Amino acid sequence: MLTASFILPRTLEAAVGHAREALTRLPAVIQNPDMAVAMDILKSGAMGAATAVAPLAFAVMLVGIMGAGAQGGIRVATKLFIPKFNRLNPFPGIKKMLGTQSLWEGAKALIKTGVLGVVLYLTVKDLLPVLLTAGQLPLGALLTIVKDTVLTLVRYAAAAGIVLAAADYAVIKKKSMKQLKMSKEDIKQEHKQQEGDPHVKGQIRSRQMAMARNRQMADVPKADVVLVNPTHVAVALRYDPMRGAPRVLAKGQGAIATKIRELATEHRIPMVQDVPLARALHKGTEVGQEIPAEFYGAVAKVLAFVMSLKAKGSAAGTHRNPNPTPIPTAA
Which residues make beta-bridge pairs with 251? Predict the structure, then answer.
């Protein structure tokens, strides 16, 4: 409306000019009726009207597209052209009428009506004295006054509409952002979906640890010796010359160490009590790996002691290492 109020005067001037030109050609047609000349006047009149109205229509269309794009972008909703019978269902519309959105729309309608009423009153208030004395004014001057008053009314109404539209846009945007915000429960659920449920992850971790314990317990019967501390720590070792240095088959402390000792007793695997070496191996090695080089000498003495026990036929059970080797501090 505001754009149209500035372009409309020029549009009217152009339209009046084209109409005056067409009217000046009519007397000649009346004196000498000719269908071709009449159609030419009609054609030029229609073209003149289209030429006069085109800037107004184009400007209003351009401003409308820009306004829509500024609010939410421009999207061609082709799906809306597909007919759907559920759009004829009145119940969703009734439900919307009873919601908070309908209350805001009703408030907007009342505010717009009130603002336009005030604008109309302030504009017409100054026009009424002029109309009461219109008989004293030339027709052209009166039309000019009425035109200016109408344009002022349209511009004030358009300015008020822009202010109301800005307020409405702010309210709707705030409401939409509030609806898009995620609740704490939604955030927790999304975190679970992205990172995994902590309870499920804990259960999986527990199962993995249980499976690892079961695998190393299954390897205990293959051990050549179990180093103990004497009850808190246990490390099962196996030495295969074809595979290099001795390897750790199983290790643990507390309940796991107790289980390793029980399996060693059951399968008659010798257990050697060497507190420093058992602690150092438990801390500095991993299951399935070879022992570090700094433990070669100490473990070699333990294996030699076990071989001497086996030669005597008394390897089973728990034995104290008669020849412990000091363990380096770095271990």
Answer: 235
Q: Name, in order, each residue with C-beta under 8 angstroms of 7's C-beta and a sequence gap of 6 or more.
A: 55, 56, 59
Distances (CA, A) of 153 to 51, 126, 134, 323: 26, 11, 20, 111
- Which residues span the domain enclosing 308? 218-320
Q: Is residue 175 part of a domain?
A: yes
| Domain presence at residue 189 | no
Q: Which residue has the tokens 């690892």?
A: 212
Query: pLDDT digit string (tens) for 119-166?
Result: 777 777 776 676 666 556 665 676 677 677 777 777 787 888 888 888
CB 273 within 8 Å of CB 226 = no
Helix runs in 139-197, H state only: 139-180, 184-195
Contact residues for 223 (Cβ-Cβ < 8 A; gap 6+): 236, 237, 238, 249, 250, 264, 269
- In degrees rounded to 5, what are phi and psi of residue 322? -75, -15
Angle, alpha carbons 197-198-200 (nearest 5°): 65
The pTM for the full model equals 0.39
Which residues have CB under 8 Å from 240's CB, separation 6+?
247
Domain membership flag for residue 58: yes
Q: Are residues 63 and 130 in the same domain?
A: no
Strands 271-273 and 318-320 come out as parallel
Reported as type and span, the H/E element at residue 320 is: strand 318-320
Which of the residues in the chain have pLDDT under 70? 71-73, 76-77, 80-81, 84-102, 127-128, 130-140, 142-143, 146, 179-202, 204, 208-210, 212-213, 327-331
